[in-house]
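Quick start: what a row looks like.
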Amino acid sequence: MASATARHILVDTEAQCLELKQRIADGEDFAVIAREYSSCPSRAQGGDLGRFGPGQMVREFDQVVFSAQPNTVQGPVKTQFGYHLLEVTSRED
């Protein structure tokens, strides 16, 4: 069965999500930004969500995690919780 590890940053607005994505692209550390800005409890682990399989996260999240190139920041991804930046750190198909 497929599984992946990923980390994310959850914020309230698309504008903030885009700003943080640019900061990461400019060289700032994903985990540091997650600890400072994410509203998800995973912020304590730098946004790390651990290992999970298809269907364990909301649909919009799953679609990105199980299709995106690993180790690239994806987003903004809008879900019922807000706007996410996602990075797949590993995936087994």
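That is the whole record. The two ends are 7 Å apart (CA to CA). The chain has a mean pLDDT of 96.
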